[in-house]
Every structure is written in structure tokens, then in C-alpha cells.
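Q: Could you fold this chain for me?
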Amino acid sequence: MVSNNQLFHLFLFLCFFQITCLHAQLCTQEQTSALLQFKQQFSFDKYASYYFCDSVEILSYPKMESWKEGSDCCSWDGVECDNNTSQVIGLDLSCSWLNGTIHPNSTIFYYFPHLQSLNLAFNHFGLSRISSEFIRFTRLTHLNLSASFFSGKVPIEVSFLSKLVSLDLSLNDLRLEEPGFELLVQNLTKVRELNLRDVNISSVVSNSLLNLTSLTLLDLSLCGLRGKFPDGIFHLPHLNELIIWDNLALTGYFPEFINSSSSLQYLVLSRTNFSGELPDSIGNLKSLKTLVASYCEFYGSIPTSLGNLTEMTSLTRLDLSFCGLSGKFPDGIFHLPHLNDLRIDFNFALTGYFPEFINSSSPFQYLDLSHTNFSGELPDSIGNLKSLKMLFAYYCKFYGSIPTSLGNLTEMTNLGIAYNNFTGMLPSSLLNLTKLVELDLSNNQLRGRLPSQIIGLPNLTSLGLGDNLIDGTIPSWVFSLPALYYFNISYNKLTGHVKEFKSTLLAIVDLSNNNLHGRFPSSTFKLVNLNSLILSSNNFSGDLDMLCHAIFLQILVLSSNSFNGSIPQCLGNFSIYLFVLDLRKNNFSGTIPDTFAKENSFETINLDSNGFEGPVPKSLENCKWLQVLDLGHNMFSDKFPYWLENLTSLQVLILRSNKFHGPIPNSKFKFPFPNLRIMDLSNNYFTGPLPRKYFKNLNAMMNVDEASFELQYLGMPGYSLYYYNDCLTIVIKGSTTEMVKVLTIFTAIDFSKNNFEGQIPQIIGKLNSIQGLNLSHNSLTGHIPASLANSTMLEWLDLSSNKLTGEIPQQLRNLKFLEVLNLSRNQLVGPIPQGNQFDTFLNGSYIDNLALCGPPLLNACNPRTPQPPPLMFQQEDNTSSGFTWEVILPGYICGLVWGLVMGYFIFSRRKPQWLVRIIEGERNKSGKRFKKHSHRNRAR
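A: Sure. Below is the predicted structure, expressed as C-alpha cells.
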């Protein structure tokens, strides 16, 4: 038994120990006051920490709220003290809602000489600078200022904190100017974790990094690094995380030989200029868990060593997308025991098949094979991927039926296998996946009817079934989907009516190119989220009164239907959002409301082929962003709407086949139609001369370098939730053509079938990038301008049915792209140019002219008939010829004056016999020629 004496001594020991511990934990008054003063510099705002902390799943709360006067600071949240000295050695204020600035004279810099760890990450310090006073923390080993809204230059003093083993300055607006980065790397020889992500370094990678032999983590992403990346960094003995993504000027190769003792676990090289082949030795990275090398310049085959089950047993994520890899994909990668994220999309030359047999223990959660050359059928064993959440295989070459076993993947949230060659019917099992959020099977060859009954898709937000062969009616369950946001079933063979949608979240509906009919439910237009409604090429009917409810609509395409009535006055009330209004090929009538608001967003207004009448609304001049205006094939009766000239974004103006009349007035603007590419005024009643000033200022038809243009089409607005391509009906090379997509470099002018008169101005040759010009069926006179030879991109030229005279300019032989030429029904004379494209044109190009000769016509040119000299260009405005009136006129005047003086001198003295002989001789010759021609005429 324990004696009373022993118990007493034990009691004294415990009391002494407790007193000692309490004494050790008591914070000094000086440090307590300093911390409380530091607290007063900030306000607490949860949004100061919300974004970043939520993204890294760290609980954010105001830690400083526990800091109270009279309490022990060592017990405060985020404060750590030394047990022996009571000195504060650690401050962790990350995710603490701090909103304010840290001043250079802040108390935190002067009363904590023993501070070893300081974490201020994920707060908002108002873009203040990092103070040079941080140098006072001479014992600091851990400094974390990540994502705390610091800005400016990183003070050089940070590089002198030589005891640092962890430094994180990432995700701020900081820069490390030379020699700051070099000093930092040279002095922090003990550092194990160096995170400078998003710090602007903008220099060549320092080779001094190779001296940091203790490094375990190196993150230099988004630093603007350039030059060659040192290979030796891959061989640092303790490095397990190397992240250098998004340094586009950083070059390098994957090391040819990698030691099997490498400890690398995370390797991220994406969006760098790394290139070359991936070596087989990459299989030596036995500890590798993540390899992300997307958007690099790697090429060649993927090493089979990556699929080695006995080596790469730790790999969980492999991302080699957008790399240009080729060859056969190693099947073994699909069987790696821990791989759950595989992305190899956008490697167009990468071939492979989906493995025939997949183990049911496979951990795959994310699989993206899109834009590869993968082919074959999807095996039934794909249903063994019980953990699979996302499967994407867009733009591959898969075929056959969609396996019903996909319906077993109860964790599936996203299935996108569009743009393949799948056939058969849509498996009803897919429609029973309760977690499915996205289903995209568009652009395949699925046929038959959609299942009429399903268990339910309560979470489905996106349903894409467009471009298939699905027929029948749209089943009721589609309209009842409660969370539907996107619905595309265009380009099928569906019939019947459209019912009311139940989802209040619906934003995008595309039912185009089917056989649907009846009135479209007006309730759809009342949906507050409705953004894009595409109903083209069906047989819908009704008026547009329902349009007044769609106040947030951005794209409305109702073309090629049977809608009727007039456009409601409310159009101007919501035009602030609407930027595509496509009503072509319907039965609309009436006038266009003159209600286009000043703050509107219209980019496309297409009213082609309806029954609209009256004038063009003047308020259209408020459409500052308008790119396409198509009013063709209506009954508009108005003068030319000259005020459209000032719409600087306008690229297409079509007034074809209306009742526009009168002359085109002189432009009231200095630079009319600066971006116009297509101008079609044909089949109207315009009169007067051609608009010279337009030809002079249509800059979009001049000096276009097609090689420098990306392949883009009119439409495709970048800020819309949905895409739209402008569709235009234009006469091209003599044939009416419906262009379902219009390249932004396409250029043409069509003024045909009007009453224009006068000459074709020489200035038209400035349009050297125009592809089509049609001035036919007018009353134009004069010569064909030789300046048209400057329009070297011309593919069709139609000047037929006018009153043009003179010869065809020989210079037109230089039009090497000219495919269609029509000069018929004019009064042209002389030889037809020969060679180049002119050898391809037939008689129809020249018929009904006065006296054209030479091939392909049968009447040959008379070789003895002297050919007139080439016509001089009329010098309008400033052409390239050196012979201008400014040069000729002085000499002409001097010669005239000299001639008059000499004539007076000669005739005042005597009759010049030599001149009389010349004149009389010419008279005699002229008489003989006259008699000779008269005799020939009588003989005929």
C-alpha cells in the first residue's frame, strides 16, 4: 500500500508541475498587446477568405474573434507558444476573414523575434506590398502568404530568411525582379517547399535550383519563365512534386534516363514548350501518382512502360491531352490498379480500341478519349466500371450499338459520346441513371423512337440527341424533366406537337430541322432563364405575341416555318439582350416597329423572304453592334437607308428583291460602311450613278490577307450560351445559293437588275480582295475599267445586259481565279483576251455584242485591222498612273500659247504654201477613201 507520506509528496509534485506548465503557457503582456494592436488593423469579412478556402476545402472563420484582453494569448486561436519560454513561435491566421493592410510599422514585426511559422494565406490584404520588415523574423522556417492579395515587388529581404524550409508566395500579384529570383534560390539552401505560382519572374530558369538538394516541392507555374529547363531538377533526390505548368516560353525535354529511385509523385508540365518523345524510362517513376503533360509539344508513341502493372502501381491520374501523340495506345494503362483519371483527348493520330475485358475492380472515375482515332465497339464489360462518373469520347470512330450495360454505372454523371457512328436505338437503361447530369449522344446514327417510359432523370440538366435518325414524337417525360437546362434534338425525323416544358431552368432549346408542327407553347417564352430558342425548318405556326415575355432571350431563330402576323412593338423593350433575330422564310407581314432602343445588342437581323412592307425603321441606326442585316425578298418600299453607313460593325447588307427606289445619295459620312463585306441591292428600282464613295471606302474588300485569317464564320458570338451561324441566300456565279455558313473573308457586291446609269468608276479597282461583282441588267455606259485587273481575287464578274462600249481590257487576263465571266448583251468591240482563265469561257460569256471577235466566237479578228492602243485609265481620285492632269496641263498650255503665237506670225506675213499643200493633199486622199467605201457599199 501507498503511505500517506508518499501521497503527500505526489500531490506536491503534481501541483508544482501544474504551476510550472501554467507559467510556461502564459503569454507575455508585451506580445499580448502587440497581437491585439495587430488585430485592430483588420475588419472581418467572410468573402475575404471564401473563394480560396472553399476551393481547397478549408474551413474559414474569424480566428481573431477569440483574441480578448485579459486572456492568455497562447490559448488564442491560431497562436502557438513555446512551452519553455512562453514566446509566440507560430501564427496561423489562414482563412481568417482578414480584410485590411499590413503596415510596415505594424507591431507584428517588432515583438516576435522567436517566430518560426507565419501563415497569412487566404485573406485579403488590399493589394498592399510585402514589407521589408519581414527580415526581422530571423528564425522563420515557414512563411505562407498564398492568395492573400499582396502586390508589387517581392522585397529582397525575403531572400535573406536563410532558415526557411517552406516558402509560399503563390496566387498574388507579385513580381520577383532580377536579381531577386537568383538571390532567393542561392540563399534558401535549406528550403524543402518552394511555391512561387503566379509570381511574375520573367527570366531564364536559374541553374542554382540544382543546389536545392532538400527540395520536396517546387511550383513555378504561371511565372513567365523562359529558356531551357534544367534536366537535373528531375534528379533531385527528394523531389516529389514538380509543377511548372503555363510557362509557354519554357523549353525542355523529358529526361532520357530516369533513375528508378526517383521519388517523384506529382509531375505537371502542361502548357509549356516541352517537346520530344516520352522515354521508356518514365516507367521507372514507381512512386508517380499524377502525370499531367497536356498542351505540350510531345510526339511519338506513348511508352508501353506507362502501362506496366508491376511498376506504375501508384498512378492515379494521367493527362496527355493536346500533345500530338500518335501510334497505338498501350492497353495496359486501362488496367492500372489505381488509375482513376485518364485524359488523352485531342491526340488525333492516337489509335486504339476500348479493352474487350475490364476488371470490375477498376477504379476509373474520369475517362476522356475525345478527338482521338480510337475505334471499334464499346464492349459490354464497360459496365464493370462501377466507379465511373464521367466518360467522354467525342469525335472518335466508335460504332455499333451503345451497350445496355452502361445503365449499370449508377455513379455516372456525364456521358458524352457524340460525333461517332453508333447505331441502333437509344438504350432505355441509360435513362434510369439517377445521378446523370449530362447525356450527349448527338451526331450519331441512332434510329427508332425514344423510350416512352423511364424511371426518372431528376438531375439531368443537358440532353443532346441532335443529328441522328430518331423518329416518332417527343415523349412526355422529356418535357417533364425537372432540372433540364439544355435540350437539343435537332436534325432528326420527329413529328407531332411540342408540349409545355416543366423545368424553370431551361435556357437552350434546339428543335430545328424536324417535322414538328402546330403552335409552339407560349409558356416557354415566359421562362426567365431562356437564352436561345432554335425552331428553324419545321412547320410551327402562330404569331409572335408570345415574344413579349422573353425579356432575357439572346438568340431567336424561327426561320423556315409557317409563323405569321406582324412583329410586336415590344421588340424594342428587350433588345438590350437579343442579338440574333432570324425570322427568314415565314409568312410575317406588316411594318417593322421603329422601336430599336439605343442600348441594344443586335448582331444579326434576318427578315429575308417574308411579306414585310413600308420603310426601313430609322431606329436601326441604334444597332451599333449589327453585323448582318438581311431584308431581302420582301415588299419594303423606301429610298436607300443611307444612315446605315455609320454602322461600323456592319458586314452584310442585303436589300435584294424589294421596292427600293431612287438614287443612292452622296455619303454623309467620311468613311461609310468600313467593314461591309457583302452588299446586295439587286432587283430593285435604284437609279442614278453607282456609289463611287462606297467603292473607295469598303476597306473590308481591300488588301485582305486570307492566309492570316482564322477559319471563322459570321455569327458564333463569343458571349452566348449557344452557337449560331448566319445563313444567307446570295447569287454566286450566276446561281442562287443558300450559304448555311458564311466565311468572314467572303466578299461580294451585287447591284444587278436596277436602273443604275453612267460609267463604272475606275476606283472600283481598289476592291482588290472582292470575290464576286455583279452589275448586270442596268443601263451602264462607257468602257470596262481596266482597273478591275487589280481585283485579283475575283471569282465571278457579271457586267451583262448593259450599254458598255469599247474593248475588253487585256489586263483582265491577270484574274487567275476568275471562274465565271458574263459580258453578254453589251456593245463591246475588238478582240477577246486570250490565255489564262479566258481560255475556259464559252460563247455565252460574249453573245449579243456589237463586234467582238476571236475565240471562242466564230468570227475571227482581221489581222490587217490596226489595233487601237490600250485605253488610258481615267484618273479618278488618285490612281497609280504617273500621267495626271497636274503633269500634262502646264505643257499643254505652253504648247497652245506657242502655237498661237507662231500661227499669227506666219499668217500675218504670207500664205504658207507648204501648209496649203498638206491640207489639199489630205483632202484629195480623204475623197478617194470616201469614193472607195461608197463603191463597196453599193456592191454589197
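A (continued): Residues 7-24, 865-940 have pLDDT under 50 and may be disordered.
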